[in-house]
Amino acid sequence: MIARLAPFAFIALWSSAFVAVRAGLPDVSPLYFLAVRFAIASVVLLALVAVTRQSWAGVAARWHHLALAGALINAVYLSLAYIAMQRVSGAIMALIGALNPMLVALLAGPVLGERFSPRQWAGVLLGFLGVALTVGARAAESAAELVPMLIGAAGILALTLGTLYHGRYGRGIALMPANAVQMIAAAATAGLLVLLFETPRAAWTPTAVATLLWLALAVSIGGMGLFLYMMKSGMAGKVAANFYLTPGVTAVMGWAILGEQLSLLGLAGLVIASAGVWLVQSSR
To answer: What domain range is 130 assigned to?
Structure first.
């Protein structure tokens, strides 16, 4: 039951992060926001590991692998995405982000020994088409520059490499200690990026505090915990396919929570992407 519900919960939490970011970032500079978010998640996870008396035995020999994967998946990916979105639209970032499942599927063969069937490859392509329909029109309407698009693509490459690296070296470790190490590494990396590239600013309004706590507790702890759980129990390519659904689910959440426009074409794209993910997940 947990294995079947985990992808749906992960998609909902990961998609909610984009809505929360749009609500909270006007009050806090992006890299500082990320550093504080990861620091809170690290403290809470360390406390949970201590209270539940979980063993660090499996972490001791591979903590450096977990730290590198956590820095790539969390700090590097999100920092580059936030920097890119200061100059390009979220729709363009969503299109660039759709490269992640395709890259993971392509590279999981030589790196992890995973093999996709023709039906699963059809699902990968269908998922990409669904994302293109969901955000393609909005992306075409917005002006974009090459440099921020390359920055966004570098973030997606970091997410892809972090996913494959964790699949290679991070499996078989208890989820909570593994997530704690990854959050600590992400907090340290984001803090370094703040020192190098940003002058921090923060107005801790009720909205900023609420979104920060949601992102730290629900997304960084709950969402990343589900991501690591799926990586532990499944193929990296199948796990990455879930990212195809986040643009469509985010659009629905933005319509329901923020009153943003929701098009019929976007809904059709969500349906097509869902069919693609189903093909990837249902094939053995």
So the answer is: 2-282
The C-alpha atoms of residue 263 and residue 244 are separated, in whole angstroms, by 18
Kindly report, residue by residue over 273-284, the tens digit of the pLDDT: 888 888 888 755
The residue whose two tokens read 């982000």 is 97
- What sign for the dihedral angle of Cα 238, 240, 242, 245? negative
**CB hemisphere CA count around 265 (13 angstroms):** 10
CB 166 within 8 A of CB 80: no
Residue 251's CB: how many other CB atoms inside 10 A? 27
Return d(Cα 2, Cα 210) in angstroms, integer: 28
User: Residue 246: which of 213, 284, 219, 212 has the closest Cα?
Assistant: 219
Read off the tokens for 272.
């097509």
* Of the candidates 282, 187, 165, the residue with the CA atom closest to the CA atom of residue 231: 165
pLDDT in tens, 122-171: 988 988 888 888 777 677 767 677 888 889 899 999 999 999 999 888 88
d(CA 201, CA 37): 15
**Domain total for the chain?**
1
